[in-house]
From TrEMBL:
Keyword Ion transport applies: no
Family listed: Belongs to the EF-Ts family.
SUPFAM superfamilies: Elongation factor Ts (EF-Ts), dimerisation domain (SSF54713), UBA-like (SSF46934)
Lineage of the organism: Bacteria, Bacillati, Mycoplasmatota, Mollicutes, Entomoplasmatales
Keyword terms: Cytoplasm, Elongation factor, Protein biosynthesis
GO terms assigned for molecular function: translation elongation factor activity
GO annotation, cellular component aspect: cytoplasm
Translation elongation factor EFTs/EF1B dimerisation domain mapped to chain residues: 71-273
Name of the protein in question: Elongation factor Ts
Matching PROSITE patterns: EF_TS_1, EF_TS_2
Presence of keyword Cytoplasm: yes
Pfam families: EF_TS
Length: 292
C-alpha cells in the first residue's frame, strides 16, 4: 500500500477542491493513486449530494449575460446566502455562465446537459454540493436570440435579481436598460394585463369584495367600484400599464411606443421566488439535541 503523504493530499486538493480529510480518505482508499482518488471523490460526492437532495435551497444567485448573438438568464440556488457570496461558488457560476452563453441551450433541460470542464452543468452542481457542503441546484434558464431585436439585460448589485428584455424596433440601448431597471425595481408579474390569468383575477376580486366597505351604495355603483379597484390592481402587476419610474408622465407601454418599439419578451428572475422556505427555530433545535 502506497504511503499517503501531505504532498499527495495537497495535490489532490488542488485538483478537486475537496476538503483535506476527504482527500486523505480518498487516497487511503485507493492506495495513493491520484486518478483513482479523483474517481473515489466523485462517487462519494454523488452520495453526499443525494443525502442533501431533500433540503430546501432557496438562496443563491441570478445571472443575466449577453454576447453578440444572444442573451441568457438563469438562477442557481443554495441553502444559505453565505454560500452565494463564497468566491469558489461565484467563480463556478461565472464559468457556468460562459459555457451556457456559448452554447445552443434554449431551456433548463438543455442547459443542464451543457459540458463544462468535462462535466455537464448538472454534474458541476453535484460537485459543488459535495465540495461546498450545501445543496446547490440549477433551478431555471432561458435564452433569447438577438436576431434583429434590441436585447437588454440587468443584474442588480445584490446578485439576487436579473432581468432580460427583448424589443422589436430601434429603442435606444440606454432606454432599454432603464426599462430593465424599472422591471427589477417594480417587480411586474406580467408584461400586460391581457396576460393576467383568470385565477389571479378571481383571487383579487375576492379580496376586493371582502375588504371594501360599500355602505348602502346601489349595486351598479358597487360593481363600478369593484371594477375600478381590479383595474388598478392589474395595472400594478402589469409592466406596460405601470407608471414609468424614470419619467412618470408615461406609462411604460406608452414610453416604449414613443420610441417606435414594442416589448416582445420580459423575463425577471429573483432568487427563491416561489420556493417555500423552511424557517428554522434554532433554540428549539438546540433544545431537542440536548434532550437527545
Amino acid at each position: 500500500m502506497s504511503k499517503v503523504t501531505p504532498q499527495l493530499i495537497k495535490e489532490l486538493r488542488e485538483i478537486t477542491s475537496a476538503g483535506m480529510m476527504d482527500c486523505k480518505k480518498a487516497l487511503e482508499a485507493t492506495n495513493g493513486v491520484i486518478d483513482d482518488a479523483i474517481m473515489w471523490l466523485r462517487e462519494n460526492g454523488l452520495a453526499k449530494a443525494a443525502k442533501k437532495s431533500d433540503r430546501v435551497a432557496a438562496e443563491g444567485i441570478t445571472v443575466a449575460k449577453e454576447n453578440a448573438k444572444q442573451a441568457i438568464i438563469f438562477e442557481v440556488n443554495s441553502e444559505t446566502d453565505f454560500v452565494a457570496q463564497n468566491e469558489k461558488f461565484l467563480n463556478a457560476i461565472n464559468a457556468v455562465a460562459d459555457v451556457l452563453l456559448a452554447s445552443n441551450a434554449k431551456n433548463t433541460e438543455e442547459a443542464l446537459k451543457v459540458k463544462l470542464n468535462n462535466r455537464t452543468v448538472q454534474e458541476e452542481m453535484i460537485e459543488l454540493t459535495s465540495t461546498i457542503g450545501e445543496k446547490i441546484e440549477f433551478r431555471r434558464f432561458e435564452a433569447i436570440s438577438k436576431d434583429k431585436n434590441v436585447v437588454s439585460i440587468y443584474n442588480h448589485a445584490n446578485k439576487r435579481i436579473s432581468v432580460l428584455l427583448s424589443f422589436d424596433g430601434a429603442i435606444p440601448k440606454e432606454d432599454a436598460y432603464n426599462i430593465c431597471m424599472h422591471v427589477a425595481a417594480m417587480s411586474p408579474k406580467y408584461m400586460s394585463s391581457n396576460e393576467v390569468p383568470e385565477d389571479f383575477k378571481k383571487q383579487e376580486l375576492k379580496v376586493i369584495e371582502e375588504t371594501t366597505d360599500f355602505g348602502n351604495k346601489p349595486e351598479n355603483v358597487k360593481q363600478s367600484m369593484i371594477q375600478g379597484k381590479l383595474n388598478k390592481r392589474l395595472a400594478e402587476v402589469s409592466l406596460l400599464e405601470q407608471d414609468y419610474v424614470v419619467d412618470d408622465k408615461f406609462k411604460v407601454g406608452k414610453f416604449i411606443e414613443s420610441k417606435k418599439s414594442k416589448l416582445v419578451k420580459m423575463i425577471r428572475f429573483e432568487v427563491g421566488e416561489g420556493i417555500e422556505k423552511v424557517v428554522t427555530d434554532f433554540a428549539a433545535e438546540v433544545a431537542a439535541q440536548l434532550k437527545g
